[in-house]
Write a structure and sequence with these properties.
mainly alpha
């Protein structure tokens, strides 16, 4: 009961943090876009466009955090926690699109950069540093293990760096009269966004494809299970992310000569969580080595299933 209450409290705090950060960023984006249009600054407009992408991404993360709180049903037996894996995938795709649009406009402007009043650029971008670092601080908890929060956190830190670059561009235009700094900073923003979103896109895609989560080596888990008392063999080991900080695992353990299976599974569940952060394991203990239910086409599990398939065809 205590674990469930803690989980609900954590997801509630995540939802509230995403809501706050999304609304703050939406207000700042409107302010920055307004000044960008008024001063014709591509650096401000591109940063506002980038921030709008982040608002959409944060909105997706907010929605995913809300969906993750929905209880499991007969149809969705894990609940809606996987929404926190699909959200960063959509988030990353959006950012890649935005970065391409920014780069195109920045290169186009290099030929004839317009004159831009530097002071509004400096002031508005400086506000952006404060807003983005403050928002990143709000969603900082747990971002190492939650891909949804990590996506939001990385965006906000990158935004703060981009705003700092815009401040420096404003100073350069004001002090040295270098108007080309405006499209140059816009181009830099697009590169920062593309590089940052590629890593997120890769991790989110892997999670959506049920890859073993980052930070866990399947061979280490295999060795750990095989070293347990009485275990003669380990097969059908699968590890994947359920979203919302939960990692699932299934495994078949051949353990023929032991009778303490309930206590064994209870202890193993605890140790898997402690060692590998695997908090949703399903373990099947088998008394014999013959595992016949994987020898058919409907549930292939690697070479053994394929050999069985070939063997059937040979007959």
């Amino acid at each position: 009961m205590g674990h469930g209450h803690h989980h609900d409290h954590t997801t509630f705090n995540a939802t509230r943090a995403f809501a706050t950060v999304t609304l703050i960023n939406l207000l700042y984006t409107a302010l920055e876009a307004g000044y960008g249009f008024a001063t014709n600054s591509l650096a401000l407009l591109s940063d506002a466009l980038h921030n709008l992408g982040d608002v959409l991404g944060l909105g997706l993360a907010w929605g995913a955090a809300v969906l993750a709180r929905r209880a499991p049903t007969d149809r969705h037996t894990y609940g809606w926690r996987r929404a926190t894996l699909l959200s960063p995938l959509a988030n990353a795709v959006l950012l890649v699109g935005f970065s391409g649009a920014l780069a195109w406009e920045a290169v186009r402007r290099f030929n004839a950069p317009p004159e831009i009043p530097a002071l509004p650029v400096i002031v508005v971008a400086a506000i952006g540093i404060v807003v983005n670092l403050g928002a990143a601080w709000l969603v900082r908890d747990g971002h190492e293990h939650d891909l949804n929060r990590r996506g939001a956190f990385l965006h906000l830190v990158a935004d703060a760096a981009v705003s700092l670059a815009a401040v420096l561009a404003g100073v350069g235009m004001w002090w040295l009269g270098w108007e080309w700094l405006d499209p140059a900073i816009a181009l830099l923003i697009s590169i920062v966004v593309a590089v940052g979103s590629f890593s997120l896109l890769r991790d989110a895609f892997n999670a959506a494809m049920d890859a073993v989560p980052r930070g866990i080596r399947q061979s280490d888990v295999q060795d750990f299970l095989a070293a347990q008392p009485g275990v003669k063999a380990v097969h059908h080991l699968h590890i994947w992310s359920l979203g919302a900080g939960e990692i699932a695992m299934t495994a078949h353990l051949v353990r023929p000569d032991q009778g303490d299976h309930d206590a064994f599974i209870d202890r193993l569940n605890h140790e898997l969580d402690e060692r590998f952060r695997i908090n949703h394991p399903t373990l099947q203990v088998e008394l014999g080595r013959a595992c016949e239910h994987d020898r058919h086409d409907r549930a292939p599990h690697g070479d053994r299933a394929h050999h069985g398939h070939d063997h059937d065809h040979a007959h």
